[in-house]
Each structure stands twice: as structure tokens, then as C-alpha cells.
Amino acid sequence: MKTEPFIEKLEEYLQLQQWTDKWPELTVGFSTRKNGVSQNGYQSLNVGLHVGDDSCAVIENRKKIADILNFPLESWVCKDQVHDKKIVKVSKGNGGAGTVSYKDGIKGTDGIYTSDKDVLLTSCYADCVPLYFFSQKSGLIGLAHAGWKGTVKNIANEMIQTWVQKEKVDVNDIFVAIGPSIGSCCYVVDDYVKDHVTDALLSHSFAAVGEEIAMGQYTLHLKEVNHLLVLEAGVKEENIIVSSYCTSCEEDLFFSHRRDQGKTGRMMSFIGWKEGQRFEY
Predict the structure, then answer these.
(1) pLDDT (0 to 100) of residue 277
(2) Distance CA 6, CA 218 (A)
(3) CA pair distance 135, 125, nearest whole angstrom
(4) pLDDT band per the 50, 70, 90 thresholds, residue 280
(5) Structural domains of the chain sorted by starting position, each given as residue range(s) with its CATH number in brackets
(6) What is the mean pLDDT of residues 60-83?
């Protein structure tokens, strides 16, 4: 059994240990719901500005994470997520986008990447799949938000092909991590979603990622769908790691849109590195 790659660094966040051990220059991980100031259904470390929580509390929570990671809010890049597959390259000039006002984030975008240092890429979640991308030799880092819609639109492949075709990155040098999200233990979908998943998978059947549990009702392993799509995009198996965490099961650690019936906070995936640090390869 593989070791969970996301390890609790502090109560406020999980560190992607398998990457940071190999490349200590990276700051990369996933926030938890612990030790924030939000109240009620958003208790307590909610970082989502778009879910109905008090914005002052959310900004205070974000500042806490910024201090812990030593990445000030002015260096964060946030986005307006729409469950699509648009990919945008960002830079230090985008620093601060969407950090204190949701409407000021990168518009209509579920995937962002950069080659700049002193930039923290961020994305918000409450069951959807966080995808992390890293190219060792080119120094590119990226994040993608993959709900079931973004997954079947193959946002993972969109990021990979953008790097391969536009940035001239060798696909063999791309590393992908699939973070905490809702698991098949807690995620049941209908025929409409099942059919879209089946259409998205080129060389695998739905049975590889789900099973029928009642007439027209199916469990869905959304992380595994993304895993298979990343493989189909040409990334080597040894360059892919997958979290075992289920955001719905782990109520103490995570918010969950399904478990909490829509009124809940958001966690945050993040990746960046500091000026003056170099990758060794």
C-alpha cells in the first residue's frame, strides 16, 4: 500500500511531502479546515470568498496561511473557477489577484501556471479534485481545479498539452499530483455523469473508476478518472502520485460540499517557490 503523499505539516495545512522531500525549494500543499476564525457552517479555516461567509473572516484566514507559508497575499494568484478547462499562464504581475475580492481573480479559469518565482498559485475546493503540475527542468508549476465537469472536459490533458506544445516541455519531465477530494466511498452519480465519464476515457471502461450500486446510481472514483486521463496524456506512472484522503469522510480535516449539503467552506491547494532558490536535477 502506498504511503499518503499529503502529510500534516501543521494543523492548518497538509504538505505534499513526496515533492518537498525531493525538491525542498517548492512550497506545495493543501489547507485544512482547522484553526481559523470563521463561524457556523464555515468553521473555521474557510478560505473561500464566494460561499457566503463573512469576507473579513475569510481574509483573516488567508492572512494566517500567508504568514505560515511566508507567501504574502500580494504574491497569491486566485481565480474565478467555472468548472471548465481554460488554462492561463500568470506571472508576478498578477500577484494579489482575487486575494481580498473574489471578482478580482483571474476570470473564468480553472487552471493556472507560471514560471515566475515569488508567486503562490492557489485554487479552492470542497470535494473537487486538486491537480498539481511541476516540470523540473523548465521550472514550470501549475494547478488545476477538476470537478466532474472539468474532469470529463480533461483539464488535466489541457494543462499537459499546453506545456508540451506551447512551452516545449518534454512530457517525460512532467510530474502530477492528485490531491485530497471526495472518494468513491461517498460520491454517487447518475447515468448522465456516468456517460460523460465513459466518453472521456479513451482506453478504459467505466468499471475502472466506478460501479453500479442501484438502478441508474453509480459510485465514482474521481481521483482515479484524473489519474487515468493523466496517463493517457503521456505522463509516466512513476511521475504521478495520488492522495488517499476523502474530503467527505475526513470531517475533522476538510469541508465537503456533499456532506455539508452545500453550506460549507473551502480548502485551498497551493504551489510556489521563492526567488533565489534553484532546482537541482
Answers:
(1) 53
(2) 28
(3) 24
(4) very low
(5) 6-181+237-273 (3.60.140.10)
(6) 98
